[in-house]
Write a structure and sequence with these properties.
- This protein has six helices and ten strands; from the N terminus they run E-H-E-H-E-H-H-H-E-E-H-E-E-E-E-E.
- By secondary structure, the protein is of the alpha/beta class.
- The protein has one domain: Metallo-dependent phosphatases (Purple Acid Phosphatase, chain A, domain 2), CATH 3.60.21.10.
- It has a five-stranded mixed sheet with strand order 3-2-1-9-10, with no helix packed on it. It has a five-stranded mixed sheet with strand order 4-5-6-8-7, covered by helices on one side.
- Strand 1, helix 1 (about 15-25) and strand 2 (about 30) form a beta-alpha-beta unit.
- Helix 1 packs parallel to helix 2 (about 40-50).
- The two termini are about 20 Å apart.
- Its EC number is 3.1.4.-.
- One of its GO terms (molecular function) is metal ion binding.
- Belongs to the metallophosphoesterase superfamily. YfcE family.
Length: about 190
């Protein structure tokens, strides 16, 4: 099964459109959060990922800013402005859909247990990270937020960050019983 793993679109619908054909070839599309803010047409990003039948929707920090019960006054001035501008551009259906996104999703493909989150807090020490990874119960942790592609291995466990679509990055992962291949894409 081929997974396309995306994160941090930040409203850049033109970037998303440029890879739509490649994404449709994946068996599953996993979105790790931060779909909105910054871009000109946040609704276009939502519509495109919906048309591609995205399988996993994770709420990122900037998506959470758009939720009904989020107090934007707690944000710094720039983030507050971005949140208010994005919210003003969005249609009510999209805003309602965001409310239902989860902050994490766990599932299995073959014998591989996968945890999808937006921001996976890493520690400063390798032993601390290893303990955190093992305590998650997942073989593969997929996370975004940093906009930096990364792959960290701890024996038979992995953390993968696909980078940011808004910066021209995503990752393809092939899983049958276990992880067969990982391909970081720059576009």
């Amino acid at each position: 099964m081929k997974l396309a793993v995306l994160s941090d679109v930040h409203g850049k619908d033109e970037k998303l459109r440029s890879i739509a054909g490649k994404l449709s070839a994946a068996d599953k599309i996993l979105f790790l959060g931060d779909l909105f803010t910054e871009g000109d047409d946040p609704n276009a990003c939502w519509e495109l990922l919906t048309q591609l039948h995205t399988d996993v929707w994770i709420m990122g920090n900037t998506d959470e800013w758009l939720c009904e019960d989020y107090d934007v006054s707690t944000l710094n001035a720039l983030c507050r402005q971005e949140a208010l501008e994005a919210k003003a551009k969005m249609n009510p259906i999209t805003l309602k859909a965001i409310q239902k996104w989860n902050k994490e999703k766990k599932f299995k493909l073959g014998s591989c247990s996968i945890l999808c989150v937006h921001d996976y807090p890493l520690t400063d020490s390798l032993s601390g990270m290893k303990n955190k990874v093992y305590s998650s119960g997942a073989d593969l942790i997929l996370c975004g937020h940093t906009h930096k592609p990364a792959l960290l291995r701890f024996e038979n466990k992995m953390i993968i960050n696909p980078g940011a679509v808004c910066e021209g990055q995503y990752v393809l992962i092939e899983i049958e019983e276990n992880i067969e291949s990982i391909e970081f894409i720059n576009f």
